[in-house]
């Protein structure tokens, strides 16, 4: 069984990497940009280069799915770069191929707000993909970069699914029917996503969970079972959205970036502006095996569990990453 | 009479500055950014600094309307900086005050395409001002930077008029009823604009003119007279959109920027991709006096002509530029 987490943004450290090994994580999709410009994203990549140099026994960068399989064979965790916003390409479609060459394999078209490409889930209006957005989706398809619509609004998401010639991903969100968070996804979106070969990664971020930090493993896994009944287990995976050891200033950066002089509390509030506590059954990377146990307890068979814990993400990455990189 | 042109983007040279003097231009709003980032915009400002140093007898930078009046008294042309796109502030509201300090006094919220703030006239859908757009309009109001919606779509323009606490401008466009170019403005927009104290600058760019390059002075001035009848002469001025001595590569940059790998021909076409020839009555800056003559010929009185040729823009700038710059 291969174990893949399709979204994390920890305060990266040897401790976190060791916990990944303890939890049996073969691959983690890590966020390298929330609002970072191209140059700032390159700085984040430089920081990762120093980590790969410092901890060669624990982690390696994945450019391909072969690298993910090699990491597993070597007992290391493959790190897959992603951006939660198209800010790294700024206004420049040519940066898609440049960033792909540097390892970026997943990019969201918008993060909560309107971007140059698409609309975020927090905007009141969603006009769908922009003129630049349609061009960039075609370019991402060409080079083999996955389109992620986790933080995007509904119409933009449906248009990305329709426009993209490769299946898209929602790396970290849950069904809106289970917990009506603004960021969780409607039946319309989930049906279009999965029927086109796309993937949904279930989030463990408390604001996306029914009962928040008090959510139980059983409730979470029953939700996964219901989702599998509706859309098929082969389209499901984990995207924990684990933001471990981060100070509250990081969630403020995620939410407010540089776009407002006032603090925007997003899914939080002025009374609870920081990261909420993790649910008891999923404190950090060491708890991945508990998710597999929880899936077994609600009736998934071994093959389905292997798929949801990582096999489905690997099969998706195989289909999406084989583009043309100059 | 003060003479102000509210939009030019020439291939700046001593020749052009001498023609401004010959045409009696006291102030020109010059574009310093189409798709430029902050750093690239600063380069454009550096280029202007070298021009001010090279031609101190011909031009001076205007930070205030007092500087415009001083330029007239000194026999020089005041240069007023504007951006046709919010690209210079990138994703950073803090850059509004920084750029204001460097002299930026007018900024469009979008240029043909969707921006982070508002929608451009070439997008199929227009959701209005974005979350960041509403914050930035308030910041522009605070520091005293004019909101320009020349290239923006209808709903975004109406929301900017409603949201802005200072009157806004459409520096270069004509009424859609006279010539139905995509960029020309509807009666709804012109009524909302002028009834809120905003200004319209009439464009002499052939794609915005009835009969294009063949437009006559009489037709242009009769259109101004009709517009004055509808909305009041006090809200009208000139924004010639003169792009003198520019190679075709510049119009390609304006239209395509970095957002598409394919060329977008905008108001042109594959057969006619470059700048169209100017109408015979307005070849360059030396022809401004002919506009005043044309206005007299269609019946405007001296005071109205003085207003349209520049007085109305100066009065507008007096109302808009008196913000709080830290």
UniProtKB/TrEMBL annotation, chains A, B:
Please report the organism this UniProt entry assigns to the protein: Rhodophyticola porphyridii
Q: Which domain of life is it from?
A: Bacteria
Q: What is this protein called?
A: Membrane dipeptidase
Pfam families in the cross-refs:
Peptidase_M19
GO MF annotation, one? metallodipeptidase activity
Q: Which InterPro entries match?
A: Metal_Hydrolase, Pept_M19
Q: Which GO terms describe its biological process?
A: proteolysis
State the SUPFAM superfamilies in the record. Answer: Metallo-dependent hydrolases (SSF51556)
């Amino acid at each position: 069984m291969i174990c893949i987490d399709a979204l994390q943004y920890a305060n990266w450290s040897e401790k976190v990497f060791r916990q990944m090994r303890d939890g049996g994580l073969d691959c983690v999709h890590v966020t390298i940009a929330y609002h970072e410009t191209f140059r700032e994203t390159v700085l984040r990549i430089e920081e990762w280069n120093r980590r790969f140099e410092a901890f060669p026994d624990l982690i390696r960068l994945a450019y391909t799915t072969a690298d993910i399989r090699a990491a597993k064979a070597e007992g290391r965790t493959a790190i897959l770069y992603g951006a939660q916003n198209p800010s790294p390409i700024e206004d420049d479609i040519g940066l898609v191929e440049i960033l792909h060459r540097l390892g970026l394999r997943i990019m969201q078209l918008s993060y909560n707000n309107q971007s140059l490409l698409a609309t975020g889930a927090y905007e009141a209006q969603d006009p769908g993909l922009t003129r630049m957005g349609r061009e960039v989706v075609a370019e991402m398809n060409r080079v083999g970069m996955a389109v992620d619509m986790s933080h995007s609004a509904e119409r933009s998401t449906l248009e990305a699914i329709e426009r993209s010639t490769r299946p898209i991903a929602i790396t970290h969100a849950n069904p809106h029917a289970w917990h009506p968070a603004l960021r969780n996804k409607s039946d319309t979106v989930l049906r279009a996503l999965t029927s086109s070969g796309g993937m949904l990664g279930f989030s463990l971020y408390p604001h996306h969970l029914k009962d928040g930090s008090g959510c139980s493993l059983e409730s979470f896994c029953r939700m996964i079972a219901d989702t599998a009944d509706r859309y098929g287990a082969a389209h499901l995976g984990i995207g924990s959205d684990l933001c471990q050891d981060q100070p509250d200033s990081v969630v403020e950066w995620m939410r407010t970036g540089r776009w407002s002089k006032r603090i925007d509390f997003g899914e939080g509030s002025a009374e609870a502006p920081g990261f909420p506590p993790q649910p008891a059954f999923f404190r950090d990377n060491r708890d991945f095996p508990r998710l597999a146990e929880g899936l077994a307890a609600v009736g998934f068979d071994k093959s389905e569990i292997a798929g949801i814990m990582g096999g489905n993400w690997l099969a998706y990455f195989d289909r999406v990453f084989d583009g043309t990189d100059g």
